[in-house]
Design brief:
Helix content is about 35%, strand content about 25%. By secondary structure, the chain is an alpha/beta fold. The chain has a domain at about 1-75 and about 190-250: P-loop containing nucleotide triphosphate hydrolases (Rossmann fold, 3-Layer(aba) Sandwich). The protein has a 6-stranded mixed sheet with strand order 5-6-7-3-8-9, sandwiched between helices. The protein is globular and about 50 Å long.
Length: about 250
Amino acid sequence: MSNHPAITLSQISKVYTNGTVALQDLNLEIPESQFVSLVGASGCGKSTVLRLIAGLGKVSSGNINWGIPQPARKLAFVFQDATLMPWANVTENIRLPLKLAGISKQDAQNLVQQALALVGLTNVADSYPRQLSGGMKMRVSIARALVTQPNILLMDEPFGALDEITRSKLNSDLLDLWQKYRWTVVFVTHNIYEAVYLSNRVLVMGTNPGRVVADIEIDVPYPRDDEFRTGLIYNQYCRKVSHCLAEAMN
């Protein structure tokens, strides 16, 4: 893994027009190819951090510095809801970012097929969202992000609405893809167990105002599997994150 920073947030504050201080003096450095999860109570600013990194909002003060210059920097965002177009089939939903970028249907075909294969949806390419399960819809959403071939992947509680069995499977699938492509991933979740399983680092955020109160390295090699999920080391890390989270909420 590279020690070269992909993203550096320095003294970031975000104050909304109603006076709400979402973030205050937040500092964060994420090296290239690292998988980092943000956990914390609702309202601690986790999603705000993602949106600021993505350029979907402006900081009130501070700086976001990039270690990956344009045009090499390619971001993709996976939202909590799949937000698929109900009138379009799986293929057309995945092709949407390429269409918006002005890439012709013919030129996009191979990229879409590759994205379908990555998430295991080749056999439902012609299906419509109403015909898919929740887990399959989220796979389409992930494929739509991956079709642009990003090197930075921002994920805002993508598996939060799924049942535990589906969530566990998609966690493992996501890790398999990350090990292959080594994106820089910033992953927001409320789920401590998910964060520990996936991440190189888990950042615990406090509230009022939002800030990082603990930075916990998960010093366990990949690949990680069900044996890791049921092991002592995993449970120790989960307890450590849980303890820091409880302190942050006091």
